[in-house]
User: Fold CN hydrolase domain-containing protein from Rubroshorea leprosula.
Amino acid sequence: MVKMMRRMAKRMVKKINVSSVLSPEFKESQSISSRSHIAHARQAIEEAAVKGAQLVLLLEIWNSPYSNDSFPVYAEDIDAGGDTSPSTAMLSEGSRCLKITIVGGSMPERWGHNLYNTCVFGTDGKLKAKHQRFTILILIFLGR
Assistant:
């Protein structure tokens, strides 16, 4: 299964211009606010689009510090949208305005009482898919 998925991904990369944005150093920063993370991602997405990218990939937990203490603080309600999810609002607007597809890496998502490490926005700015991954970091947060 993994081999098949890798082959499919390689074929996709050959067909379209792909750009992965945001450096690991930026992702690891603990002192940058959520708005700064979002603004930096937006700038990187715009730069990739100007260079011709049709598909932009963000890193895991790109919109917050990567620490268990930060996940519940930065978690957003993706389904509610608007002010409850400024990250997805930016991804939606960016994909629509730039006519690109954005894989929003993953980001802390609050859904009910649960937290997930979860997205893909199409060229129309609409959420195309999301995967609510319940990971070990969430188990650590819950104290299990």
Observations:
- The domain at 16-142 is CATH 3.60.110.10 (Nitrilase/N-carbamoyl-D-aminoacid amidohydrolase).
